[in-house]
Structure formats: C-alpha cells, structure tokens
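Hi R.,

Here's the chain you asked about this morning:
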Amino acid sequence: MCSPDGRQAGRAEPRDGSAFGCMDRRRKFDRQQALISAEVGEIPAVAHPLRRELCGESLLLFLVTYFPETTGSELFSLDHCRMIDRIENCLLQGGRFINCVYRGFAKTTITELAALWAALYGHRSFVAVFGADKTQSESMLDSVYKELCENDLLAEDFPEICLPFQQLDGKSQRCDSQTINGEHTHIKVNKGLLVFPTVRLANGHFSPGSGAILKAKGILGAARGMSYKTADGRKRRPDFALIDDFQTDESATHPGQVETRLTLIRKAILKSAGHRKTIACVINATMIAANDGVDQLLDRERNPSWDGERIPMVKKWAEAHDTLWQEYAKLRRAFNSDIPGDQQRAARTATAFYLENREAMDAGCLVSWHACYDPDVEESSIQHAYNLFFDDPPEVFDSECQCQPAAPSPEGVARLDAITIARKINGFGRTVVPPSATCLVAFIDVHEDVLYYAVCAWTERCTGFVVDYGTWPEQRRSYFMKRQATNTLAKKFKDLSVEDRIIQGLEILVTQLCGREWYRPDSTPVRIEKLLIDSGHKSPEVELVCRRSPFAAILQMSKGDGISAGKLPIAEYERRPGWKFGDNWYVPAPKNRSLRTVMIDTNYWKTWLRTRLATPIGTEANLSLFGQAGETDHRLLGDHLVSESPTETQGRGRTVIEWLPLPGYDNHWLDCLVGCSVGASMQGCSLRPKSHEKKLSRRERALIAARKRGLAT
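And here is the predicted structure, written out as tokens:
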C-alpha cells in the first residue's frame, strides 16, 4: 500500500536531522570505531632479542627466565632438569615419554609452560593438552592465556603474540574483527581453545608462533579425529600431545577405567595426527595405585614404545633412620590434643632436636629436591620428607611421595599386584602339562552370559601350573570386563531360555575340556581327573548337566562359602555318616536323591592361593602361569587374581582373613583357580607329607588296644 506521494506506507524515509537519520549515522560511527579499536596497531620491537633467541634453544632457560614467580622462584633439582630435558627432546625430536613424579613437583606448571614454549617458537604448530577431565585440561589452557595477557617479560620479547591477546581485553567477540596493518589475525580464544594470531613481521615473514593452536580436552573427550580448520581452509591435526595426570583416584583403582584410558591414549590420541605424521607425546603424572595406568606405561615389557622415569621424593633413607629419627618421631607425636596449640609445640620441640643432631640425622639421606620444604616450620627437605613419612599412613606416603603404591595386606598375606602375577610364567606352552605334575583338574564358573574356566596341573606337594583358562563363548580381545562381553550365550542360543542356554553352554564346554587329551612335553597324553562346576546360583542346571554328561564320573558340583571368624570352622563340624571331609572343604550326604556338592571355605582357600602365587618359581608349592616371556599377556588374569581385598577379622577366639571384592573388578578366574586348588586337594595333593607307615589291619588294631588294657600279651 502506497501513500499519496508514492512512498510505501508504514516506512518513513530518513532525512537529515530526523531521528532515523541520527540512528543510521550512529551505527556507521560505531562500526568505524569498532574497526579502529580492532586494529592492534604497530607492533613494538622485541626488547631483548638475544634473550628470546637463547630461550628458544632451551626449555629450562625459558622456564627460569620468563616465569620468576613460578618455575623460576626455586632452584630446580637435577631430577627436574632431567625431566625438562626429556620434554624438550620429545618436543623437538618426537617420541613418547612418561614422567612419574610425586605431588608438588610442579609437573603441571611445567606441562603448561612447555606447551607455551612449543607454540611461541614454532617448535610445534598444534599442541593438544589433556587432563583427567575437561575442567582440569581447560584450567591449564586458562593459565597459559593468563601468562600471555599478564606476563610483562613475555610481552617484552613476544609482542607480536602477547599484544593481540591483550587487546582483546578478555572479550572473545573481538577475535573475528582483529587486524594488524589491516590484515586479520585470525586469533581465537574459546573455552578449551587458543589460536595464536597470524602476524606478518616487518621483513615480510610471519612470526614463528603465527597460527599456533593449543587445544584442551579431557582424556575421555572426543580426541579421535581432533582437528582445526584454519582461515585458508587447511585442516590441521595435532603434532604434539601433553597429558597431565590423566587418572582420578577412582579410575586408577578400577581396572576397566584404567584400560579405557590407556586405550584412548594408544588409539585416539597417539593416532590423532593421521598416518602421514607421527605425533609426539609426553605424560606427566603421579601414580595412585599399583597397576594403574601410569604403572603400566612405565613397564617396558608391556609398553616397549614408551620411555619413562619414576622419581621418588626419598631416594635413600638416612643412616639414623631407625635411631635418631625414631626419637624425633616420638617428640613430634608427644602432644596433648586437649590443649590448643600443643601439637605445634611438639613440632617445634622435634625441630629443635633435629637442629641439635642435624649432621648425624642427615647423614646418608638422599632426597630428590632440596628446595621442597616449608621454611616457616621446617629446616630442610630431609626434615620435610620425614615429617610426611611420620604423619601419613605408609600407603599414602608410598603412593603420593615415593611413586610406589602398594595395596595394604594383613600380616601373613603376601602383597601382590596384577603385573607381578602376570609375569610369573613357567615357560611351558599353553595346554602343556609339566612332567612333574601328577593330576590335572579344572573348574567352571557359571554365569548367565559367559562361562569362565581354568585348567591346572598339580604335583603331590601342591606345586601348581595354570595350563589353560578362558571363557565360553570365547571373547575376541585380550582385555575385557564381563559386562563388556560381546560373544555371549544369548548370542549363541538366541531361541533358548536363560536356563537352557546355560545347560547347552556347559555341556559344550565340559565336552571340550574332558573329551580331549592334554599332553606333556614328551607327548604323553593326560586327561582331566576332576572338574568342579560352580552351582551357587544355577544349581538345577548344573545338576542336570552333571547327571546326564558322559563324563559324570569326574564332574563335581561345588559351592563356596566364606566362613567368617564368627562362624564355626569346617574342622569343628560334627562328623556325620556319609559325609566326607578334607582340608577346609566337605561333601555332605545328599538330600532327596540330589547330587553331592563339595562345600568350600573360600576365605581359607583364597588366602592359600595368594600364598602359592607369592611363592617364587623353583620353590615347592608355588603356582605359575603358562607361556614365554614377552609372548603371553596375562594382564586380565592378573586383575582377576587381585580383585579382592584381604581383611583381618576376629571372633570365637580365632583370627580369619576375609576376602571382599573390590569395586570395578571381575573376580571370576580367581574363583576358578580357587576351585582348581580344591580339586587338587580332593585328588590327594597336600602340603603335608604323606605317611609311609604300613596301614594296620582291624585285627592288629584290636590286639594293640587289648595290650593297652592288659588283656593280651
């Protein structure tokens, strides 16, 4: 609709001096001002060219020169220097390196600033920074951004990088319009992303750090396919990965989460550069638990492509460790908690004792970092280390300070970790029965989705050999949790009920184990003499299989019961007619024509098994695994065998080691080896030497009894 003068109705034509005209002029003015403010202007000259050049050749010099409040505030130790040199070498030459250091070693700060050094000097064009989670990794990048904006020393020597970041004034919206001499800088500041400005210098060349990319991700983030598309349309991929403390306290003790993080490092991160370029990687971390991700990467046998170093706080304890330092500990702990400030008084008294005897107390002690102590309350790094040693439980000090965590065990129970177990191999091939073995037994642990089994050979004096173990259906990977099993009974027998699947699976597995011959090295055939099947949860199905199996004579239903200290031990059970008793197992008389079931004290037998695993090869009554060094991977078995924690309990006047499952672990092959141990006991294997005395007849025993009563001569 048009007005009488031909203009469109509802629209006013702006005129000079009108309100609309003023608004248009205001918008044009704002745009012009924005363009002016987005122009960085003339880049100042480098204040100290020689300093900048020298620091580009040495990461250590860069750290102590430009960051006097952090990495330059204290003298680095020789261990620091060695660690920094290795990071530098990895940045310049490539490779994979892991630093395992204790808390407070400044590893995170060094990691952040190493990424900055690589970007500023153009040593690396795309640095990916990873932490245990997204928040941690992004905070590392925030720290780098703060240095670029607020560090005056950096601003003096890297004005072409620092000034554009400073001009943003913390407003990421200004990135898209920022220019230098009319050319866009393509700078980016987002959460988890820094893109350095692209700056053409006076000589026409671009600055070394132009367009460098720093990207932060949590270790569980989408590292696969990580890339950044530059303004000219090129897709860039990471050429360096810095990983800082990629574990949490929870994930480090959960084997499934440990394996998930290691898999992400091996596959998603180390392969993120593509096939045409190899990505370099440095990990700085503290060990949290035995066999955690850091512990595994430090193992050269399992991860030969990784170079690594473990740096403890105390390398050698003092000569007076058991004398003067114990007196020191008594003084430090001699305070009354009811009196405010008495703890501080005791600490001062202990410090005075240390000063009086310092030369003798320091003698022989070697610590990693001499500047690592609180000068307000301590006199030296040696005193600081001993304070931590006396104040914290041993497991805390071992983990946080010594990088040697160990799971606590009750007295009499050997400390073992999964790696130690996995390495205990005897050199025999899989399925080969050693010549010294006198019996071969097996055990099946029953579940609705997967059946676990183990086969063990034993000598009469309980030296054991794990001959074979696995699952049915077989899984097509070396490491998995039961919940991750993809090849399951349900997949094999889709049309059957859960109960029928278990029956079918058991019958197939029993036939595979008992229907074959196992061989000694000289090709002598051996057959399984006893096969125990767990009937704890699926007793009707297991009983049906045992009844109708052609191998029924060697099959035995079994059920475990962890007899606690408050319960009556099997040794004190009443001996009833038809019952059979053994070493902490018994077979009660059957009821209602059901099959006999061996009842097992699992607490006793798990402790027994732990002792066999801890006993060295070559010693009587040890248990070893099949395979050759470097050729057999028993990682998953090792995790199963340390999946339960021993706890000492007391009751009824006796002490019992009870075993409780650790969260996140599978324990099914632990159950299998316990079952094999009981099977060997049922076949006559025993730690007790067998008596070689002649067995007396009934008449001879009657005569002996009569002589004792004086009735016969």
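One quick note: The first strand starts at residue 96 and ends at 101.

Cheers,
M.
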